[in-house]
User: Fold this.
Amino acid sequence: MLTKGDEYPLHQTPEPIAYAGTDRNFYDRYFFNGYSPDGSTFFGVAFGVYPHLNVADAHFTVIRDGTEYCLHASCELNMERLSLEVGPIRIDVIEPLKVLRVIVSGHDGISADITFTGRSFPIEEPRFVHRYGPRTFMDYTRMTQNGHYSGWIEVDGKREQLAEGTAGTRDRSWGIRPVGTSDAQPHPGGLVPAFFWQWTPLNFANRSMFFHINANTRGAAWNTRAVIVPDGAGPDEQIHIEDAEMAATLQPGTRWPSGGTLTLPTADGDLHVSFEPIGRFQMRGMGYTSPKWSHGLYHGPLEVEREDIDLAACEPGQPQNLHVQMICKVRIAETGEEGVGVFEQLVIGPYAPMGFKEMFDLAQ
Assistant:
């Protein structure tokens, strides 16, 4: 089947753009988060297409006064991968790799018009490949970029302009992840799947910092990287660091971070970045770990639903609440630089460095 994408020189295989290899878990996704300089406002956007499932979905969410207001939308893709619109949520690529616009045309009391402008060229993270025995769990590429936002968000008739200095991160990833309905067949050999993930994109006055780690149950990293990117830097001006380390603490009774120190070895000596959480964002507001709106699930030709999450009422031990982004004030000890960023964490199953022995036990 030919689609709009076939008009552009984008092909990676002899097939039309509508076909993406043979793995049913192939996906292609946009992600955005943004926050005011004092952390009082936080919003997020997720937009994914799943060519083999013939589904596209989108999510928009904003925190106000202790409530996470979410809008979820899902539709049939109909094989048209250049249609970046699901119900009321749309993404416009204004300038590739630099400027993007997100529009939420009013639905059920939620609307928005925000524009992201990148601070530098995006970073390309190491390819993520992870298997459980013979089964490929992940195989994808991700590019990540910090930037500034302008525009407005409206909830139930109250429109607020984004504060000057509102910053955040956006990424694009594509490849293979678990999407749609879960595979019910057990893993051979009684293997218990586990997952450990930390990600800390940070915005300082004149530069950005990034760190991520995926690790096995013993704490050994299978994918990790830190990058320091001065404003305006091109791809050859990024400083990539292979052996950064995060020492994180946990809130008792949860699997959520309560702070941490990131150590970045550089040519001029180690940098130590401290994290002070000032707010919490539940990732299920953008579909991650959501029982109903998990990415790629089929909801029919079009379905849109609002969800309000009372952050104070979230039970930290529930699987859908494990995945969080903590909005943090951050400080570099050696230079005194202060900034704002997020500390994202998801820990499922045993993880020895944090004392977790079971699938969902909590910090003591």
Observations:
- The chain has a mean pLDDT of 95.
- The chain is about 0% helix and 55% strand.
- The first strand starts at residue 26 and ends at 35.
